[in-house]
Design brief:
The protein is of the alpha/beta class. The chain has three domains: 2-75, 3-Layer(aba) Sandwich (Rossmann fold), CATH 3.40.50; 82-285, Mur-like, catalytic domain (UDP-N-acetylmuramoyl-L-alanine:D-glutamate ligase, 3-Layer(aba) Sandwich); 296-438, Protein-Tyrosine Phosphatase, Chain A (Alpha-Beta Complex). It is 32% helix and 20% strand. The chain is built from 14 helices and 20 strands. The chain has a seven-stranded mixed sheet. A six-stranded mixed sheet has the order 15-16-20-17-18-19, with helices on both faces. A three-stranded antiparallel sheet has the order 12-13-14, with helices on one face. Strand 15 and strand 16 form a beta hairpin. The longest helix has 16 residues, at 258-273. The chain is globular. The mean pLDDT is 95.
C-alpha cells in the first residue's frame, strides 16, 4: 500500500493515507515523499467530497470510521487489487499465484526483463534489488504477485481473481490462512476458480512437482494453453549453485534451494511466452540476488553465515531449512522461527509444522504471548510445541530477551549458519547485530 501511494504521487496525483501503525522501511520512505501522516490512527474529518478515490487495504475493518465516512459521502471505494486491475487493464498481465514462491518468481521475471531491456511494470510483495515493489508506467506488460487472501473488508474475493491475467503461474498449493480458509478444501477453492477463469487464449503454467496441483489441473481440464514445469537442472560445486541450460552450459547463481530451482523454471516459461530469448534469460538470472527477506544474507564470515527469510507457513519453513541444509551440508544450522500469524499460532493448524525444522541442528521457536492475546488464541507450552514440530530438542522463547539468552547459551562448532524465519519482526531484534555478536 505504501509503495502504491509513492508511485501514484510520483505520477502527479494528490495522495494521503492513514494507518494505526507504520514500521520501517515504510516509515522512512513515506517521510521522504511527504506522505507520512502527522499522527497515527483514523481521522474521519479528513475524509471529504473532494476525494476522487479511496483505496482500501485489508487492515481496515468494516467499523473503520474513515471507511464509514467515505460510504456516507458516496465516495468511490476500491480494494487494492481492484485498483491495480484498473491501471493495468490495457497491459499484458502476468499473475504468479501459489502458496509459496510468488514473490521470488515474480521477482525473477521482473529482474530478467529489466536486465534484458524489456519494459514491464510490477506489483510484488518485496523489493527486487534496485527495483521497487510497485511500478506503474506506460509499459505494455505488468507482473503481478497474485495473493489468494481476501481483497478487503468489503470484498471477500481472493485478490488474484481481480486481475484476469493472460498468463497465470501457480507455484504450488499448501494450506495456509486458517482464519479465512478453515479447511484445506476451502483453501483450494480460490485456485480452482482461478484455473476455471482461464480462457482459450490464455496460458497456465503450473508446478508439475506438486501432486495436489497436478490433480486439480487434470480435474478441471482447462481450455487454455497449459505448460507444466519441474525443478530446473542444477549442480552445486563448492557451495555455489550452477544452473544447467539445454546446451549443458553452467550458469552460476546467487540464489539456492530446490524451491528456487522450481521458481526459476516457472520464470523461464513465462519469459519465453513474453518473447525473451533463452540466452537473455540465462545471462540475466546469473545476477538475480533474490527478493528482500527471501534467504537474504545478513552476515557472512569464515565461521558464521546468517540469513533472514520470510518463511512462516509450514511448507515455506520446511523448504527454507532444506535449502540451507543443501547449501551448507556439513555446517551447524541454528533455525529460529517466529510464530506470528493466526494460523501458525493456532493449535488446530500447528500439527502442519511436523518435521519442518528437522534439518536444523538447533531448533528455536519464538512467539509473543501478547500476539496470542490479540488473536484470542490459547496459550502454548514447550511440550505442546515440541509435539507439534516433532522435535524433543525444541527450544521456545516468549520474549526477545529470552531468545537472546537461548542463543548465548548455545555452543555451536565453527562453521555455523544462523537462520531467521518470520513474517513478523522478532520483537524488533537487531538480527545483524546479533549475528556480529554471535560471531565473536
Amino acid at each position: 500500500m505504501h509503495s502504491l501511494a509513492i508511485v501514484m504521487k510520483d505520477r502527479g496525483h494528490e495522495v494521503s493515507g492513514s494507518d494505526d501503525e507504520i514500521y520501517e522501511p515504510s516509515k522512512s520512505r513515506l517521510v521522504e515523499k511527504g506522505l507520512f501522516p502527522d499522527q497515527m490512527g483514523w481521522r474521519p474529518d479528513f475524509i471529504n467530497s473532494n476525494i476522487d478515490l479511496v483505496v482500501l487495504g485489508m487492515h481496515a475493518r468494516n467499523d473503520n470510521p474513515e471507511l464509514i465516512k467515505a460510504k456516507q459521502l458516496g465516495l468511490k471505494i476500491q480494494s487494492f487489487p481492484e485498483f491495480i486491475y484498473d491501471v493495468s487493464i490495457s497491459k499484458n498481465r502476468v499473475v504468479v499465484a501459489g502458496s509459496h514462491g510468488k514473490t521470488t518468481t515474480s521477482g525473477i521475471i521482473s529482474h530478467v526483463l529489466n536486465e534484458s531491456g524489456v519494459a514491464a511494470d510490477r506489483m510484488i510483495g518485496a523489493s527486487i534489488g534496485s527495483l521497487e515493489p510497485v511500478s506503474i508506467s506506460d509499459a505494455g506488460i505488468i507482473i503481478l504477485e497474485g495473493d489468494e487472501y481476501l481483497s478487503s473488508t468489503d470484498d471477500p474475493r481472493p485478490k488474484f481473481l481481480h486481475y484476469h491475467p493472460q498468463i497465470t503461474v501457480i507455484t504450488g498449493i499448501a494450506w495456509d490462512h486458517m482464519n479465512v480458509f478453515p479447511t484445506y478444501q476451502s483453501y483450494i477453492e480460490p485456485f480452482r476458480q482461478l484455473i476455471m477463469m482461464q480462457g482459450e487464449n490464455d496460458i497456465l503454467i503450473y508446478c508439475d512437482d506438486d501432486p495436489d496441483l497436478v490433480s486439480l489441473v487434470k480435474e478441471i481440464s482447462p481450455s487454455c494453453e497449459v505448460h507444466p514445469y519441474r525443478i530446473h537442472p542444477y549442480t552445486i560445486e563448492n557451495g555455489i549453485v550452477f544452473l544447467t541450460d539445454a546446451d549443458g552450459v553452467a550458469h552460476p547463481l546467487k540464489i539456492f534451494g530446490i524451491h528456487n530451482m522450481q521458481n526459476i523454471s516457472a520464470a523461464f516459461e513465462v519469459s519465453k511466452k513474453l518473447g525473451l530469448p533463452e540466452k537473455d534469460f540465462y545471462k540475466a538470472i546469473e545476477t538475480f540476488e533474490g527478493a528482500n527477506k527471501r534467504l537474504q544474507l545478513l552476515h557472512s564470515s569464515p565461521n558464521l553465515v546468517s540469513y533472514l527469510d520470510f518463511a512462516h507457513a509450514p511448507s515455506k519453513v520446511k523448504a527454507t531449512v532444506q535449502a540451507v541444509r543443501e547449501k551448507h551440508l556439513n555446517d551447524h544450522i541454528i533455525a529460529c522461527l517466529e510464530l506470528h500469524t493466526f494460523s501458525s499460532l493456532n493449535p488446530d493448524f500447528l500439527p502442519q509444522y511436523k518435521d519442518a525444522l528437522r534439518e536444523a541442528d538447533d531448533k528455536i521457536v519464538y512467539y509473543s504471548p501478547h500476539t496470542l492475546e490479540i488473536k484470542k488464541l490459547p496459550g502454548l507450552s514447550i511440550s505442546l510445541l515440541s509435539s507439534f514440530f516433532n522435535a524433543n530438542d525444541l527450544k521456545v522463547a516468549t520474549s526477545a530477551a529470552e531468545l537472546e539468552i537461548i542463543l548465548s547459551q548455545l555452543n555451536p562448532p565453527k562453521k555455523t549458519v544462523l537462520l531467521w524465519m518470520s513474517s513478523g519482526r522478532f520483537d524488533g531484534l537487531d538480527l545483524k547485530k546479533i549475528a556480529i555478536e554471535f560471531d565473536k
